[in-house]
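FORM 12-B: Structure-to-Sequence Request
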């Protein structure tokens, strides 16, 4: 009885588990230096996977060395690979990959209050930024949330902030470094390469980067109390502005409930909280992406023999007499949207 009481007392004063979420993307990986490097089928994609795995594992080593009890990985990239871009056979002891039976949205569903901190590896600049492969979710939309020009690290930080969890470290190119410093100066940052242009980067030496990521991760976890959870939204409704590459995209987005005109390439949209704002942003990203296909088709019609190509393609559609709304199953295939790139069976 006394022994049981002593154990209970020790447990009561034991420090809480210190679990870290490690979110990774691929554009900001050390070796990614050209657009196809981050796409399945690209000639350097296998080497980029190796580099991603080493960037991530360097961070894991530092976190575990500093006292993290568990590191949970989640895939924030869409390379086209049905499996994680991270090489699972390299997963260190003390870390696990968040593999689920059903696709999920990592921005909203990977994080909860059980984590002590979040680390983001391989990140990139916002849409319109000056870094390598800059974009926010997809490349054609720019999101200003309550006056903040959002990049994906900021989306991660805002989502984590709902639970009081700080974003303690980010890795990426030299241009992203400035974006991170502007919104969260206390967040540690490791520059893994120089952004030469939107389509070219110069990686730093592998050994130097690995060492710096490990050391920065250890310091960031030890000093995590210095980083305040990023909570940029006050109480009550706030405004969002979604800008698009093409005015045709803004015209389509204007059909969204509550949307209003900002200019010929942007709409304004109110929201009550981050989740509502993010879900509207995500929906409009995919709705407006279809405009790209329409613009391509319009251009096909203008080139020599383009009309014949269009006619042959349209002939592949079912005839009107053969079209049906009868269901063929009970679930919707999530492939082709954000949820289709996360969650592995």
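FORM 12-B RESPONSE
SEQUENCE OUT:
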């Amino acid at each position: 009885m006394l022994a049981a009481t002593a154990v209970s007392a020790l447990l009561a004063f034991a420090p809480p588990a210190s679990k870290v979420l490690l979110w990774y993307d691929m554009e900001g990986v050390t070796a990614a230096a050209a657009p196809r490097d981050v796409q399945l089928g690209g000639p350097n994609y296998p080497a980029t996977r190796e580099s991603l795995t080493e960037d991530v594992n360097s961070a894991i080593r530092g976190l575990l060395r500093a006292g993290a009890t568990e590191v949970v990985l989640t895939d924030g990239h869409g390379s086209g690979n049905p499996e994680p871009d991270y090489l699972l056979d390299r997963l260190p002891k003390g870390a696990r990959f968040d593999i689920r039976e059903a696709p999920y949205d990592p921005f909203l569903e990977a994080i909860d209050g059980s984590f002590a901190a979040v680390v983001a590896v391989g990140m990139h600049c916002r849409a319109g930024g000056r870094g390598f492969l800059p974009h926010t979710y997809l490349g054609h939309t720019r999101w200003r949330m309550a006056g903040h020009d959002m990049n994906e690290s900021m989306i991660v930080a805002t989502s984590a902030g709902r639970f009081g969890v700080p974003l303690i470290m980010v890795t990426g190119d030299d241009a992203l470094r400035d974006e991170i410093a502007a919104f969260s100066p206390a967040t540690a940052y490791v520059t893994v390469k120089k952004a030469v242009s939107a389509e070219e980067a110069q990686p730093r030496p592998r050994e130097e980067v690995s060492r710096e990521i490990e050391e920065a991760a250890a310091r960031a976890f030890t000093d995590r109390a210095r980083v305040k959870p990023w909570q940029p939204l006050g109480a009550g409704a706030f405004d969002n502005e979604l800008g698009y590459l093409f005015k045709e995209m803004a015209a389509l987005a204007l059909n969204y409930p509550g949307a209003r005109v900002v200019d010929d390439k942007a709409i304004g949209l109110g929201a009550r909280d981050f989740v509502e704002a993010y879900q509207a942003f995500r929906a409009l990203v995919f709705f407006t992406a279809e405009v790209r296909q329409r613009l391509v088709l319009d251009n096909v019609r203008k080139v020599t023999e383009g009309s014949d190509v269009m006619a042959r393609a349209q002939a592949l559609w079912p005839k009107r007499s053969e079209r049906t709304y009868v269901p063929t199953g009970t679930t919707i295939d999530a492939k082709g949207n954000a949820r289709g790139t996360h969650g592995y069976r």
